[in-house]
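Example: CoA transferase.
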Amino acid sequence: MTAPLKDIRVLDFSTLLPGPMATLFLAEAGAEVIKIERPGRGEEMRSYDPKWGQDSANFAMLNRGKKSLALDLKDPAQRARLIPLLKDVDIVVEQFRPGVMARLGLSYEDIAAINPEIIYCSITGYGQSGPKAARAGHDLNYIGDSGLLALSCGRPEAPVLPPALIADIAGGTYPAVFNILLALRDRDQTGKGAHLDISMSDNLFPFMYWAMAEGQTTHQWPGNGDALVTGGSPRYRLYPTSDGRFVAAAPIEEKFWQAFADAIDLPDDLRDDTHDPAATAQAVGARIADKPADHWRAAFERADCCCTVVQTLQEALQDPHFQSRGLLEHEVENTDGARQIALPVPVAGQFRTAPHAARAPTLGADNDLAPQATPNTGDTE
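Written out as structure tokens, the predicted fold is:
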């Protein structure tokens, strides 16, 4: 196995989720990641519940294998301790609102002046420019502003929140990582660094390729839950079972639809779902609701028709398929020596070290990486 980023050093000024997950991916590919944290409490994620050892379980998951340097960035003397590191670091990741790093004297221009090859990645909700650039927001705001949330947000009497922080991870983490890798490749060719402007809201539009295509072509824009992949078709829905579980039915193609219809014994006069989609969906729902999840799990395994029973996360972690893939072999260890499954990362196995247990850093554990300058006393012999 090789670690393609083993010679890469990262200074990570980010907190919470998008940036820390991005630098986790880089660390898992061999990069040395040094978190810059405020003294005393460290980054906010350390205090989250549930606690696991000294810090939170969330912090342990996202910061496995990193280092920690505790500095008060508002103190010029402490900030100056970063200069030796900044001279030979490869990547800076920051997640403040636009202008904050500049006020600290740590903007891209400030750092590029001492290290022209720096790759400086700024992750924000709305980007470094534009009318909303300075606006506060969280994941729900970004998916709401981009139009993504409106495509499937439940009924007014029962709004549905997405089960994942889509903007943070898919709009922030993933674009940050692949643009950093692109910048590294470009630097190999040109010798030049780059400032990467990663906007979580900007990066949500690829998820709506189908809605953009449909709306612009037909001038009939998809609404809330009325399109093929958002619940507007009987062929792509969640159907409750008799024991309170759900079937994830996705037999879109005709061959899968017919196999699905056979498996649930759908009457022939309802198999043409273009005639009366609502009636077909109602009949499918009634058939699924008549039997428990175990019945349908076996039936759909035989039918192989793009239908499954929705698993809980606990069930997924015990699924022989994911276990056989080696997805869950890496571990994270806390300060008490307890271990649990580490967060799986999308780094191909050949680019990671062998499965092992690693810890998130204790606050300031690596302060020796930026020692204080020795005072010049002016003594003479």
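The longest strand covers residues 32-37.
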